[in-house]
Amino acid sequence: MIRAKLVDTDIRLYELFLSLLASNRAKGKGTVIFEDFLKKKAKVSEAVVFGSGASALLAALTAMKKIAKGEKTEVLLPAYTPLSLYVTIKQAGLKPVLCDISLPDFGISAYSVREKTNSKTLAVIPVRLFGLESSPQGKNDGVFVIEDNAQSFILPLKWDVELLSFNRGKNFPLLNGGALLTNDEGLADEFRKIRADFKVPSLPKKLITLIKFKAFCLAKNRTFYNLLLPLIERFKDNKPTERINEELLSSWQCMLGAGKIFHADENMKKRYGNAKKYLELLLDTPEIELPVVKEGSVVNRFPVLIKDKSKVEMVHLELKRAGIESSRMYYRPLHTASGLEHGESELNNAEYAVEHLGSRLVVVLGHERCGAVKAALASNSAPGHVNSLVHAIQPAVKAARREKGDLLDNAIAENARLVAAKIRHEAKLGELASKVRVLVGVYDLDTGRVKWITP
Hints:
Layout: H1 13-26, H2 30-42, E1 46-50, H3 53-67, E2 74-78, H4 83-91, E3 95-99, E4 101-102, E5 107-108, H5 110-116, E6 121-124, E7 144-148, E8 161-165, E9 178-182, H6 185-195, H7 203-218, H8 222-234, H9 251-260, H10 265-282, E10 288-289, E11 305-306, H11 312-321, H12 345-355, E12 361-367, H13 371-378, H14 386-400, H15 407-426, E13 437-443, E14 450-452
Parallel strand pairs: 2-3, 2-6, 6-7, 7-8, 12-13
Antiparallel strand pairs: 1-9, 4-5, 8-9, 10-11, 13-14
Helix pairs in contact: 1-9, 2-9, 3-4, 3-6, 13-14, 14-15
């Protein structure tokens, strides 16, 4: 039986019904009311609410791209982060640029940010992964900075925009929803213009959300949660995000958020207190590496790196036997795309993600109109460091020339297949090899959808 859950809520069923009544009385003004409460809580001049944290980020990037008039197209983000950030950046028509991370807090490396920032850099997204402090210090120098606090909560605004998420599993869960906080009124106006084209959730979707939320509230009861656990495990979605839905947050969820926002501090303090207790309990354990938890951090998960990669699975199972629910950090994907090297480095990433972080899903993602594949089709050599990429893609080019259809599209798909095959057969995954799933897809730059292909 699970005694210590990963995801929990302090919302009661009666509060859910009260929010429905309040939404009816508000007559469609739930979003405005919630935004006003968020502004007061965060002490900012502007708050804009969306249907999810990812859709909020999509709106922010789209607005910033419009302000930059297309002259800046690159967005810096940490290399170890949710895949949804990568997908959102691509959907906004921008280029993701991965930066190294700092292991003590899993945040983006300030040194890597300085190294990769250039005249094409539109924005930097420091992510508070697991709610840990991870924002690089210093001036933004003409580059937008979106602090991703999706796994944390409202903190003093120190950059252009603060991103929040209210999805299930977050510190302030409304099942879904997100928000952008800023003191820039012009920027907030652009966010609202983008949001004007987002869709209101359909009635069936609203009903499904309400039913899920009732189950979420009932799951606070340990017995009920354990009864539902087999069903929950079956419906867990480990498939990568294909496209960010451009939707709004339901009015009743906004009213629920408005009613709970000023009562959240005690819960956030408990999270920080629990993290400090874990640090004290595990401090002298030699087999693990512990995170740095700074004063006031609103911790969403307590990440532990296990030094001996062969023991990751064993630790996970032992925790489960002890009634402690845990996750293997992120099912970190491996994606290959334009601007990201895919030589021998992809094997190192896959090996590290699978063995040290316990990931069980690797995604090899090509994309249409790939410049590197075009170069490989044009010639079997190229100047400078690009030559290594062109040389690595030649086997895919050779295979594609034997196929019918568009040569470039076939070469892109073949290249993704070959990289996936190389990971399966050459990556040193040891005993975990049989448990790792490798997916292959091609990203459509126009529609933002992923076409999954046979490996």
